Amino acid sequence: MHRIGVVGAGYVGLTTAACLAHLGHDVVCADVDEAKVERLRRNEVDLVEPGLAELLEQHDIEFTTAFPRDVDFLFVCVPTPSGEHGEADLTAVHDVVAQVPENTVLVLKSTVPVGTARDIAHQPTVSNPEFLREGHAVEDFLRPQRVVVGSADQDAARRVAALYGDVPVVLTDNTTAELVKYACNSFLAVKLSFVNTLAELCEHVGADIDGVTEGMRLDERIGAAFLRPGPGWGGSCLPKDTRALLSTASDQNVEFATVRAAVDTNDHQVRRIAQMIEGDRIGLLGLTFKAGTNDLRDSPALAIARLLEGEVSAYDPAIRHDVDGITVVGTPEELADGRDVLVVLTEWPEFAELDWPALADRMTTPVLVDTRGVVPADKVREAGFRLLSVGHPDGRR
After folding, report:
1. Residues 89-121, buried b or exposed e (16+ Cβ, 10 A)?
2. When you count CB atoms within 10 A of the terminal residue's CB, does the N or C end of the chain come out lower?
3. What is the pLDDT of residues 2-26, one digit of tens each?
4. 388: helix, coil or strand?
């Protein structure tokens, strides 16, 4: 068992603290937000993340606003937001590094630009990027597909890898580990932008995106993941990491045209979906950037809502407060009252089970735009809806 400090109690930090405690380590988690720390001490978790609250209840984690000093390893899990030109803002990272005692193994789990660890005046520094999917963060931490650990000090790297138990590990240098994170998220962004453009083409030529992607995902060279079209990609990682990779490439005079095209395509997808939505009173089913979380950061649903000209309301299972001037209601039935059109923008599974006849009866003109391909098309049409579905000619599905 080791004494481990975690700085930052957001998605990454809180998951890291809870899971390391579950693996048998003595963990102290620090955050500058005093109110958040007090809530965590009372086992009140603001994040919607399956299994996280249960782990925090099971283990005795020390939550504090003081900097953790008497620790063997210090995990940096602070935000690195995008700057004006897409570069990562490392202010919070440098604030942490300046306080780390000598001989403490500094572990950079925050997503940082390539070369950050090399420039940090602390030894040993280990790069250990996170690959946690929101909605699956606990599962991904405890049963990872791989753990990437990089350092100029390979003994320190192996010690960090050992904290995770018996899991697949990629041992490398700091710079390579940093680039792996950006490479993975940018590749996923490219894949999503590709399938969204493919869906647009399907609508024009009369093809069915579901059939096209089924034929693709059975090819083991392509794989099944990230082949579902949607309203655009968002969240806390893909937008920020693609911008940061483009910034890094530009600094090195490398034109990363593939990633730049993916970003441009994503902006186009948001505008394209907004143009599909017509009506004076619009109801949005889903606001979070993906199902299984209450995270609204860079949500395509919000980006689309800002482009709509009608009166906009929303229902989301994880959101109970108004957002960006959008009135959030308590039930799908309340959302349907007097609406001209409903729009599925988040792939919550419960949206497939809604009482479509009851919703249609409450609307002025039963129109449904399904940007996620989650609703049962036959049942929706039988209920009297006109259905428009991304990637299908005339909405047919």
Report:
1. ebebbeebbeebeeebbbbbbbbbbbebbeebe
2. N
3. 999 999 999 999 999 999 999 999 9
4. strand
Q: Which amino acid type is present at position 29? A: C
What is the DSSP secondary-structure string of 81-129? -B-TTS-B--HHHHHHHTTPPTT-EEEE-S---TTHHHH---SSEEE--
Longest dimension (CA), the chain: 69
**What's the rounded Cα separation, in Å, for the pair 289 and 318?**
11
Residue (of 386, 308, 314, 387) closest to 348 by Cα position: 314
Q: What would the pLDDT profile of 377-392 be if each residue is shown by its tens digit?
A: 999 999 999 999 999 9
Asked about 184 being catalytic, the answer comes back as no
In residues, how long is the chain? 397
Tokens standing for residue 71: 């620790």
Which one of the listed residues 19, 29, 202, 237 is annotated catalytic? 237
User: pTM, whole model, 2 decimals?
Assistant: 0.93
- Burial of residue 379 (number of CB atoms within 10 Å: 0-12, 13-18, 19+): middle
